[in-house]
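Example record for the data management plan.
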Amino acid sequence: IQVTIPASTAGFAVQVQPSTTAGDVVFFAATSSQYDTGLTYQVDAIATVHALDGPHLLLGSGAVGFLNSAAPPQKLIFDNTLASPVDIQILVGRKVP
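Corresponding structural encoding:
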């Protein structure tokens, strides 16, 4: 998935995958054209805020579970407090059904 998060934007939702089966997502990567603590995201409806201050790479369903322990991540909600837009790349790998 490639998206551009506009400057000074809150609540920009990005659907990343549809599965709700626990352990189904085994790979997650989020990279950006700019890294900063002013670029953050939340996973689904969980209150924990993650700063995208460097590439985020999680390998294995246990590691991906750190994002959401109840279900695989389905939606990321970004806030960009920076003065410029940011290009985000997200890659999610799921088990073969």
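Summary line stored alongside the record: The longest strand covers residues 86-94.
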